[in-house]
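Two folds, back to back.
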Amino acid sequence: MMKNKWYTGYLDNFDIVNKSWGFEKIFINTDLYCVKELNIYENCSTSKHYHKVKHETFYVIQGVANISLYTESGSLKETYTLNERESFCIQPNTMHLIENVSFGKTLILLESSTEDKQSDNIRFKHV
């Protein structure tokens, strides 16, 4: 392939962030956008959380995901099941949780979003 200023090469230079539920591969995170691969282990889920600013789109590469949306008080509002090659968008200020409901597989999601900032990740705390 001819190289120019837009060609970035192979995506073999990325950060890995370990989580209690699996890990993230962060391919790029700029002030304009973020692209990650989420690997959620079998029978695991992310924490219940929301983002004040971040807009997320998830695409299922492998496995089956339940994406649950919650009210502001933390009560379950609705759950969507996504199979491979299906996608789902989450708007800012939408409390959500992603669960791996695959049998014998790690759930692999591609996440495309606006910038990912630690200060914009608000975890739900039950009071």
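---
second:
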Amino acid sequence: MTLLSASRSTEDGKIGRTDELEIQSRRRDGTLRTPVTIWVARVGDDLFVRSVNGRESGWFRGTQERHEGRIKAGGVEKDVTFEDADPSVNEDVDRAYREKYRRYAASIVKTVLTPQARAATLRLVPR
């Protein structure tokens, strides 16, 4: 493991352990949109977020313009690329959300497990 990958792994671990992160997408002109606070799940070395309101929510639509933005959590701020997650990871992402947020009421956790939310799963790729 190189120093750079070790540093990235440590930062991703801090982000993955926090309950919430702030996410901002970049507008076409390169400026950042207003931050939105959302939950984050870690599967292996990858970080995932979901829109509980599906692909039509404002913040999610913003990620689809340039597929670039910034996240902030656990004292770490990173530029990221937003990638539509492969549907094959949905079960693992569901499991990660259930485990991480199990102290919350099931009715709240279920909001990130709906077909609508699953269809709006993004993988956060550090840039």
